[in-house]
Amino acid sequence: MDQAATLKQWQQMKKTGTQGAITLERRIERCGYPRVISFTSGKGGVGKTNVVANLALAFSKCGKKVLLLDADLGLANIDVLLGLCPKYNIKHVFSGQRRLDEIIVRGPGGILILPAGSGVPDLVSLTDADKLFLLTEMEEFGDDIDLLLIDTPAGISDNVVYFNLAAQARVVILTPEPTSITDAYALIKVLFSRYQVKSFYILINWVKDDQEAQKVFKQLAAVVDRFLGSLSLNFLGFIPQDEAIPRAVRRQRAVLDLYPQAKSSRVFMGLAQSLLKEGYDDYVDGNIKFFWKHLFRT
Predict the structure, then answer these.
(1) Residue 286 located in a structural domain
(2) Domain span at residue 238?
(3) In terms of Cα–Cα distance, which of 177, 176, 198, 172 is closest to 187?
(4) Are the C-beta atoms of 171 and 236 separated by less than 8 Å?
(5) Is residue 14 assigned to a domain?
(6) Which residues pair with 36 in a beta bridge?
(7) Sign of torsion, CA 61 64 65 68?
(8) Comparison of pLDDT for 230 and 60, the residue scoring more
(9) Does 293 fall in a domain?
(10) Which tens digits make up the pLDDT trace of 71-117?
(11) How confident is the model at residue 28 (pLDDT cuts 50, 70, 90)?
(12) Residue 283: pLDDT band by 50, 70, 90 thresholds?
């Protein structure tokens, strides 16, 4: 669909309250579309956006073409973190003022960034029509990128669930704080009990060493095993405490860009290489992942 037809359909769907149902062929090529990875957390303040920004740069350094979607649509962070000043953002796409490719900005290492709005309450809860419109707009990027990274909002809102279901792999980020562990469990519980998501990567941020990270992971795994049962929690790794990180944040730069030899920068490179080796969930199960694969297929 072209922009005018898509916008017309989207506006009509908003008026009629339709659920955005659409019939698509279920036969899909199993190659040629980008890998879609969501980065999510049960609570804010765990350093998720900083992790995503640095991993995006690490993937780029590994030779991958990366598109980073700031999915906290009403409270943008990525552009601020990287010192970018986008003229347009996602709200201009939903209003029909700009196409998606017109709002993209280029970040460090050539990564592409889809900036969200800031202080735009209408973007906090997307309707089904909004979601369909966004997916349709993203179709054109399928041939141009290797990885789509989604920086979801924190919590268990509809937007959080939606973007996590859109991903082939979900990375849950938490810290050693008890509230972070509790809220990470709550997020996993929602995705598992309501949407049958059974596989998660766990990344522990801001810990002293592997021993502390393993302790946090085991605490989470024990609760999940006790109350949820058959889930796959994969320990992805940890980000060490490194004063280079807050220094880079204050200068609005990625630590991997500003201090490439810092211990955290080396860890980000290792994590990116590990994720590239992983095999993701490639089957079609009828949920939103199917739409992403349809739109991104070659």
Answers:
(1) no
(2) 33-281
(3) 172
(4) yes
(5) no
(6) 148
(7) negative
(8) 60
(9) no
(10) 888 787 899 999 999 999 888 988 889 988 899 999 999 999 999 87
(11) very low
(12) very low
Tokens read off for 285? 């199960």
Give a yes or no: residue 6 inside a domain: no
pTM for this entry: 0.85
CA angle 64, 69, 71 (to 5 degrees): 150
Query: Contact, 110 vs 68, CB < 8 A?
Result: no
Show Cβ contacts of residue 109 under 8 Å, excluding neighbours closer than 6 positions: 56, 57, 60, 61, 257
Q: Which long-range contacts (CB under 8 A, 24 or more apart) does 179-185 make?
A: 179/43, 180/41, 180/42, 180/43, 180/46, 181/216, 181/219, 181/220, 181/223, 182/42, 183/41, 183/42, 183/43, 183/154, 183/155, 184/41, 184/42, 184/43, 184/220, 185/42, 185/220, 185/223, 185/224
Closest CA to 145 of 69, 66, 70: 66
User: Nearest Cα to 54, choosing from 273, 280, 272?
Assistant: 272
Helices (H), the chain: 3-16, 48-61, 78-81, 90-94, 100-103, 128-137, 158-165, 178-195, 210-227, 244-250, 255-258, 263-277, 288-296
pLDDT confidence of residue 58: 98
Q: 105-106 and 112-114 as β-strands: parallel, antiparallel, unpaired?
A: antiparallel
pLDDT tens per residue across span 142-164: 568 899 999 999 999 988 998 89
CA dihedral 198, 199, 205, 208 (to 10 degrees): 100
**What CATH code is carried by the domain that includes residue 118?**
3.40.50.300
How many domains does the chain fold into? Answer: 1
What is the phi-psi region of residue 262: left when phi exceeds 0, alpha when psi lies from -120 to 50, beta otherwise?
A: beta
